[in-house]
Amino acid sequence: MSAVGFLQQFMKEPRTVGAVLPSSKYLAQEMIASIDFSKAKCIVEYGPGTGVFTKRLIESKHSETILLILETNAAFCWELKQTYGHIPNVYIINDSAEHVSYYVRQHGFAKADYVISGLPFTSLPADVSTRILEETEKTLGEQGAFITFQYSKVKCIVFKSFFEQIKVKRVWQNVPPAYVFTCKKGLNI
Questions:
Q1: Is 167 helix (H, G, I), strand (E, B) or coil?
Q2: What is the DSSP code (8-state) at residue 22?
Q3: CA distance 149 to 182
Q4: Could you tell me how far CA 99 lies from the centroid of its own chain?
Q5: Which of 1, 15, 86, 147 is the most interior residue, by most CB within 10 Å?
Q6: How confident is the model over 124-149, as pLDDT tens digits?
Q7: Closest-CA residue to 40 (of 181, 183, 119, 145)
Q8: Keyword annotations for this protein (predicted)?
């Protein structure tokens, strides 16, 4: 999808798209930097938009690793299916991240190893954000990580109510610059 198409989707659904341009390759690299692809069996991605992170996940994961992609925007979902729908063990689902545990179980896993999120938590309704974070915390394995980015640190306190350890890194090479939050349940990050 072109930058114009992305902007059109933002204007159509600003609460769920959350940005006027796709994420940069630098932000994508930082989003996947802490994933141990040699051990990951099930990775979930929320709100991939045009698939900037999706592309990096597919390039880096083992062929047998399951990648579940949850996207509510029908236009983005269609684009993702056209680009990545033919790849084995990549499942593109037009649904909300609120239902992540259902899809993880449906694909034969008790827990996910990593959840990567492009969701704009600052613009989502508070009750939706809470349900997504509850489901994410419940769906992640004990050693799992929830990795998300935001354009401010406003939601850090909310993330801390679900995850004990949070590492924050600023990525300046993105428009606008973004913060990457790597969140874990345990005490060692």
A1: strand
A2: P
A3: 9
A4: 14
A5: 147
A6: 999 999 999 999 999 999 999 999 99
A7: 145
A8: Methyltransferase, Transferase
The pTM of the whole model exceeds 0.85: yes
The whole-angstrom distance between residue 20's C-alpha and the CA centroid of its chain comes to: 17
Structural domains in the chain, sorted by start: 37-148+180-184 (3.40.50.150)
Q: Name 45's Cβ contacts closer than 8 Å, sequence gap at least 6.
A: 53, 54, 57, 67, 68, 69, 70, 115, 116, 117, 118
In the numeric block, which tokens belong to residue 45?
A: 């991605």
> Tens digits of per-residue pLDDT, 51-86?
999 999 999 999 999 999 999 999 999 999 999 999
- Our CA angle for 59, 75, 116, nearest 5°, is 40
Distance of alpha carbon 54 from alpha carbon 68, whole angstroms: 10
The answer, yes or no, to whether the previous bond of 14 is cis (omega within 30 of 0) is no
CA nearest to 112, candidates 165, 46, 159, 44: 44
